[in-house]
Design a protein that fits this description.
Blueprint: H1 4-18, E1 24-26, E2 29-37, E3 43-54, E4 63-71, E5 82-86, H2 94-101, E6 114-117, H3 143-157, H4 168-181, E7 187-192, H5 194-205, E8 210-216, H6 229-246, H7 248-254, H8 257-270, E9 273-278, E10 285-290, H9 292-302, H10 306-309, H11 312-320, H12 325-341, H13 344-354, H14 373-382, E11 404-409, H15 417-424, E12 430-435, H16 448-458
Parallel strand pairs: 5-6, 5-7, 7-8, 8-11, 11-12
Antiparallel strand pairs: 1-2, 2-3, 3-4, 4-6, 9-10
């Protein structure tokens, strides 16, 4: 018989093997309770785990740790397949992006776990974090300054990483390693923006592991970022400004916002305009110039969503009348948020490997709002940043038999609906939906969460009835800072 001391020792040993209280084990990975926070104030209860992978899978040496989070299903016996959200950017962390879109996933949680993985180089997965260029200061966006900034970022990254191993290919390998360690469940991929590139590449490499895929704001594999950005933005702005001209209240208040923008561009091409404002974060008075580069950057980012696009006629009109403070203040807010949410070093690892080698000078960019600034930024920083290895078929279309739902915003200035149509051509069980009046990323809009749930439940895009999307429309333009006309 065992003595009391032996029984106590055995009990403690069994508890240690069982892991911490409230732990959930999927395959060989144990998750424990945690909270996720995003760019806003939302907190999401989750279960987190740390998972080690080799940085370079083809050689021994350094391992890196990935941050995983599980949003558990509410059902006591959930489906065996799980949903995986793949974040955008490149450079966003899934665990940080999820809280801002969590309501869109509530219906999915009824029967399925949702898995989040901070892609290597983002969030808490050995992040490659460094500053973005300051578009308010032309000196920092000169070619030599861009290279110097990339070199400083690279010097910091090399203290804990080899940036060649932080590409989409490496992220796909990580996802498959995690899936196998969780017991090999089939996946329902939900990629947003750059996350659609990850989803498509995973579908290419592991088609039998994919039960379904939702691609929201689709990036075709053939695309070289930021090759089409200038043209896509001008197309979206033309539609946004045409809607203002067609709305009596907007037209009476602002006339033609396209002409106002042209007037501002001509003025700023000669010299920056000083703006006085309160710092939107510290409320300290400051003076900051409105430059042509800053104007282009703010207009581009505000065109992403209908709520911010509705502010553009007002902000442009204020700046044209000598009151550039509101526009510059918005730039301060949006660039600070962008810098907080993106790991720029990881972004460079992806773009310098997967896009920069395929970029070609485009004479059609001259005269466009963005001009060639994004291409120049990419070329200068990628002249410094090391490249990873690109599979020979990486830029080819993806062909697979999995059911795929593709979502696009009609006014998306980055990934227009034609990209989804292009990708759908080689996916025989796919269906592309376009949301009227919407911009970049559709997952939180209208009845989309319900449609996504129905699609994943049935794994059948053809069976969907998308008529619930018909009421969607662009947000009316703000005619004052109090909002649109009543």
């Amino acid at each position: 018989m065992l003595c009391m001391r032996s029984l106590v020792t055995l009990s403690l040993s069994l508890l240690a093997l069982a892991g911490p209280a409230n732990a959930r084990t999927l395959g060989s990975i144990s998750f424990t309770p945690c909270e996720l926070s995003g760019t806003g104030s939302a907190l999401v209860k989750a279960e987190c785990a740390r998972f080690d992978v080799p940085e370079n899978p083809d050689a021994g040496g350094r391992s890196i740790t990935l941050q995983l989070a599980l949003i558990p299903a509410r059902a006591p016996r959930p489906e065996h397949d799980i949903v995986v959200m793949l974040a955008g950017g490149p450079g966003q962390a899934a665990t940080e992006a999820f809280p801002d879109v969590a309501p869109a996933f509530e219906t999915l949680r009824k029967n399925r776990h949702i898995l989040l993985i901070d892609q290597r180089g983002t969030g808490k997965s050995n992040p490659l974090k460094c500053a973005l260029p300051d578009w308010s200061d032309p000196a920092t966006t000169a070619p030599a300054a861009l290279r110097a900034q990339a070199q400083r970022c690279l010097d910091a990254a090399r203290k804990h990483s080899d940036p060649r191993w932080y590409t989409t290919t490496d992220a796909v390998r990580d996802l498959e390693t995690v899936r196998q360690s969780m017991g090999g469940p089939r996946l329902n991929l939900l990629g947003v923006s750059y996350g659609t590139r990850v989803a498509l590449e995973y579908l290419r490499r592991h088609p039998h592991a994919v039960r379904s895929a939702v691609l929201d704001a689709v990036v075709p594999p053939e695309l070289a970022l930021p090759g089409d950005h200038a043209a896509n933005l001008d197309d979206a702005l033309a539609r946004i400004f045409a809607a203002c001209r067609a709305a009596p209240d907007c037209a009476q208040r602002f006339g033609d916002p396209a002409r106002t923008l042209d007037k501002l561009r001509a003025q700023l091409a000669l010299r920056p305009v000083a703006a006085t404002l309160q710092d939107p974060r510290t409320h300290v008075p400051l003076r900051q110039p409105l430059t042509l580069e800053l104007l282009a950057g703010v207009v581009r980012l505000y065109a992403y969503q209908p709520e911010t696009a509705a502010l553009l006629p007002l902000l442009l009109d204020e700046a044209a009348q000598g009151r550039a403070g509101p526009l510059v203040g918005q730039a301060e807010l949006i660039y600070k948020r962008l810098g907080d949410s993106l790991a720029h070093g990881m972004e460079l690892s992806v773009i310098c490997t997967e896009d920069a080698p395929f970029l070609r000078p485009n004479p059609n960019e001259q005269g466009r709002l963005l001009g060639a600034q994004l291409g120049e930024l990419t070329r200068e920083q990628c002249a410094v940043w090391p490249r990873g290895t690109l599979p020979a078929d990486f830029k080819l279309p993806v062909s697979a038999d999995a059911p795929v739902l593709l979502l696009s915003g009609e006014l998306d200035p980055v990934t227009p609906p034609r990209y989804a149509e292009q990708v759908a051509r080689t996916l025989p069980r796919s269906r592309a939906l376009v949301l009227k009046g919407q911009g970049h990323s559709a997952i939180i809009r209208g009845c989309v969460p319900r449609l996504v749930r129905q699609f994943i439940d049935a794994a059948d895009a053809a069976a969907l009835d998308p008529s619930c999307l018909d009421p969607l429309a662009a947000m009316p333009a703000f005619t004052s800072f109090q909002g649109p006309p009543p």
